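Consider the following assembly input.
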Amino acid sequence: MIEELRKLQRDALAAIREARDAADLERIRVRYLGRREGRLSGLLRGLGRLSAQERPAAGAAANRAKRSLGDALKGRLAELAAAEPRREPDLDLTLPPRRKWRGTIHPVSQAVDDIWTIFRGLGFTRARGPEVDTEWYNFVALNTPLDHPAADEQDTLYLAPGLLLRSHTSPVQIRTMEKYPPPIRIIAPGMVYRRDTYDATHTPAFAQIEGLVVDEGVTFVDFKATLAEFARRFWGPGTQVRFRPSFFPFTEPSAEVDVKRVIVREDGSEEETDWIEIMGAGMVDPAVLDNVGYDSERYTGWAFGMGPARVALLRHGVRDLRLFYENDMRFLGQFT
Ligand code: DAH
């Protein structure tokens, strides 16, 4: 019996040494130490046939063999695990995750895009003009005499005599009409520049969106209906639009357009905002049409100049325009 035990132990240890992986080891364990089919269990069942003198020594030897095989299995398993190349680097699951960097579109650009999308749906095309322009395009052709306060150096950033940073997008009206005959239906977004003090409602560089429609038979009704439709598509069906008489050298009559929004709160209740001015507008002055060689007896038109930053302000309930232009990512990143 002791002899058989020794042989069993030798075979088992050799097999364990040769095992390639944990599955091998498990098979070996079952073959030798398995409770029912294992070879050691088989031997132990034979203990009963031994004499009372032989039994204790054989039993002790069997227990030693069992322990030594158990240890060998454990040892080999640890050896294999240590030899295996690590798949995962050391992980510290308590570290805070790294935030994915995702860019967002600037809230003013978002407003420009959304405004443009609506007008495109209404049949407008997009036009553009230079940011450095001349007194002719910025003022004179727009029926604004150079002794008008707007043309004063106090308000406009001159680069050289007669050359300036455009103070509004209205010169794009002139450039477009010079290039194309009527009918005209354009939207012209762009940056404009003024010598304004920097405060909550003024920045020296800001975005504007110009709109211009010229055709036969265009009337003020056309103009009001289009802007009301725009406002309802942009802010929602309950939006009201108000036209206040105003003055611009390039429109007659002129108006300032205000909107009043209905804000629906989370609990379903509704709240009306104050009237907020979003643009200057009016019927194109016949003198402007004459300046580009259009027949002002035959054609009429309307135009507007909108401030998309004010639109974004109104949209997001922001109170200070400067926040949009100071490029603090903690602020700008909120408008996804
Ligand atoms: N250009 C004007 C401004 O910057 C805004 C404006 C008013 C544009 C009336 C227009 C218009 O096209 O018809 O203050």
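The chain has two domains: 2-83, 107-335. Ask yourself how this observation constrains the way the partners meet.
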